[in-house]
Specification:
Number of domains: 2
Largest sheet: 7 strands, mixed
Radius of gyration: 22 Å
Shape: elongated
Low-confidence stretches: none
CATH topology of the largest domain: C8orf32 fold
Distance between the termini: 34 Å
Strand order of the largest sheet: 1-2-3-4-5-9-6
Number of helices: 12
Oligomer: single chain
Helix content: 25-40%
Length: 352
């Protein structure tokens, strides 16, 4: 798996029918929801997976179709697509539902994606089809419904901001013992991540991680990973935290190209403040500030440095994939992205 991208398809949806027919055997059934639904397509080189989602009203979405090319199944594409869909709709819908056959492997997949069983319809497949529907070697009989809640997008616990992990819970209890003020919690968490978790490049780290719990375990991470940890610590306290991105040179000059730098936005007393927990060193002096942000890097006009305007609810997907696959800091240098394609969840004129 390289660096998957996910697109929303608005035109010529029927071009995806060959893949959609893997998820729904009747073209006539697909036509009932295809045009009114949102079609998501995941590409990793070529097309790998598709998903169609419809608005059922009352804050409820339904996954009508989820299919992965048979050549690429069980490689994580479908799970990545389902999670992307859930993140895409955060703040606008309350839950996602779906109906599927009573197949252990399929139910296990959806449960791993955060879904829970709600109810089933007995003999659905035997009464609605005049021929056997077979999946994973099982003749389908009952239809099982599952649902997944969609929480506040800036409070989500996910793969990288995994604040329910025991190590995060324990550290949060230690850091915030006797502290009830959100601003004070933000300062404590920020200074801990900034000062006690060294940047991987500053110490020549031999382990490359992205997930917040792993950052805490190994006591290191690049800016994106450290931002995940700060987000996890504060989200565990019900404090909304987002991510901001900056286009900067990879080295002191642009000889090695550019990269995406990451820092956090934290909602305190009704307004977002910007904090950069990259870690201080000669030439870098970030500080906790409720007013003008004191970040690690300024944008130098002689280089193509700038902020991507806005606040993002989730970590930068492409960078997370690079960190997951990297075996060394050199891998990070050679592969770290230098572009943010996603739209921010909160738009701003400037990011700092």
């Amino acid at each position: 798996m390289n660096n998957p991208s996910i697109r929303i398809v608005n035109k010529n949806k029927k071009e995806f029918l060959p893949l959609l027919l893997l998820g729904d055997e009747l073209e006539s059934d697909i036509e009932k929801y295809l045009e009114r639904g949102d079609l998501f397509a995941l590409y990793d080189g070529d097309l790998k997976s598709v998903c169609v989602v419809t608005d059922d009203g009352g804050g409820v979405l339904q996954i009508q179709n989820l299919a992965t090319d048979t050549r690429y199944q069980r490689q994580g594409y479908a799970k990545r697509l389902v999670n992307h869909v859930a993140y895409h709709y955060t703040g606008r819908y309350d839950k996602i539902i779906l109906g599927t056959g009573d197949v252990p492997s399929v139910l296990s997949f959806y449960e791993k994606c955060g879904f829970s069983k709600t109810h089933s319809i007995a003999d659905y497949f035997t009464t609605h089809f005049d021929y056997p529907i077979i999946e994973d070697g099982i003749v389908l009989k009952d239809k099982v419904y599952l649902e997944r809640t969609i929480p506040n997008k800036f409070l989500i616990c996910d793969t990288y901001v995994d604040f329910t992990a025991e190590i995060i819970v324990s550290k949060a209890a230690e850091l915030f013992d006797g502290v009830f003020d959100d601003t004070q919690k933000a300062r404590i968490a920020y200074e801990y991540v900034r000062d006690e978790i060294p940047h991987s490049f500053d110490i020549g780290a031999t382990v490359i991680i992205a997930k917040a719990s792993d950052v805490l375990k190994h006591k290191t991470g690049i800016c994106h990973a450290k931002a995940n940890l700060l987000a996890a610590l504060l989200r565990s306290q019900g404090i909304p935290v987002g991510f901001c991105f900056q286009h900067i040179t990879l080295m002191d000059d642009d000889s090695a190209g550019y990269c995406v730098h990451c820092f956090n936005a934290i909602l305190l007393d009704g307004r977002w403040i910007k904090l950069d927990a990259r870690g201080n060193k000669p030439g870098v002096n970030t500080q906790f500030s409720l007013d003008e942000p004191v970040l690690a890097f300024t944008c130098r006009h002689k280089y193509d440095e700038y902020f991507w305007p806005g606040i993002y609810a989730m970590p930068h997907n492409e960078t997370m994939w690079v960190l997951d696959q990297a075996k060394s800091l050199q891998d990070v240098i050679e592969n770290i992205p230098d572009v943010v394609n996603e739209k921010p969840d909160i738009e701003e004129e400037t990011n700092a």
